[in-house]
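input
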Amino acid sequence: MAEALEERIAHLIRAVDDLSDVVARQDREITQLSRRVQMLMEREADREMMASEAPAANQPPPHW
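output
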């Protein structure tokens, strides 16, 4: 009986350790993806701001 419980506990400890590794990896991925999304949002905001500042019709063509 005690041996079976020790074996179960060992398996549960292993499962918890495995899950902890998965959660840690997912946290790193979420952090990285959040930074990328923020960077893309800032780029798009800059692009929208530049587009609203000077319409293409008011700009001289590139060959001038």
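quick obs: Helices lie at 2-53.
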